[in-house]
Structures are given as structure tokens and as C-alpha cells.
Design a protein that fits this description.
By secondary structure, this protein is mostly helical. The chain has four helices and no strands. It has helices spanning 17-30, 44-60, 71-92, 96-107. The model has no long low-confidence stretch (mean pLDDT 90).
């Protein structure tokens, strides 16, 4: 079956990545993090570090357990990861929506080994 955005449940009536990015940029501006003297400089490097730290906080929810004991906390950490992803793509000039759709197209007919070996 060919790749079709509609096939994956893509709905243009809901908020898309560009709108989420716009709202994220409003938040960053609101806190003054785009200002040259901000202690939280919005560079790709700084944001990538923050993304990894937040992803570790997601992982922490599953330390020693198959299920999280704090679904709301996990929800917040996943939102933090998504916001950093949006911010990195924004400051890097990457259209994340197009990048994701292209990656899905690339992986559509890809097959991964069941055990061991390179993906």
C-alpha cells in the first residue's frame, strides 16, 4: 500500500506541528529566552542537551517497572520532550512536519531484522 497521509489518520482539522511550534515560540518569547542576555540561550546545542535530560525523565518513569505509577507526570515529561523537539527544529530551520512525513515514507517498506544485526 502506498504512503498516504490520510491513511495514517492525519487530520487537518486539529492543531498541527506548525501551530504547536508557533505556541511554543510564544512561550519562549514570553519568558525572554530569545533575548541575547538570557541565561537560557536557545541554541540547538543547549536545546539538544535539554531534550536528552527530559527524555531521561521519561525513562525514569519506567525504572524498575513495566508501567508508570504516575501517568500525569509521564504526560508532562512527554510534553517537555515534544516542546524541546519543536524548539530544536525551529532554531535549526527544519520543517519537522515534513521531516517526519519523509521519514515515514522512507520507512514504509523498510524491514528490520528480528534479532541482532544493524537496523
Amino acid at each position: 500500500m502506498p504512503f498516504l497521509p490520510g491513511f495514517l489518520g492525519y487530520n487537518l482539522l486539529v492543531m498541527d506541528i506548525k501551530e504547536l511550534t508557533r505556541k511554543m515560540n510564544e512561550l519562549v518569547r514570553h519568558h525572554g529566552w530569545y533575548e541575547p542576555d538570557s541565561p537560557k540561550q536557545q541554541t540547538a546545542r543547549n536545546l539538544a542537551i535539554s531534550l536528552c535530560l527530559e527524555a531521561s525523565e521519561v525513562l525514569e518513569h519506567f525504572q524498575w517497572s513495566e508501567e508508570t505509577s504516575d501517568p500525569e507526570g509521564l504526560r508532562g515529561e512527554l510534553a517537555d520532550v515534544a516542546l524541546y523537539l519543536l524548539q530544536i527544529s525551529s532554531v535549526s530551520g527544519i520543517d519537522l512536519e515534513q521531516a517526519i512525513l519523509e521519514k515515514i515514507r522512507q520507512n514504509w517498506d523498510r524491514h528490520w531484522p528480528d534479532e541482532g544485526g544493524a537496523a
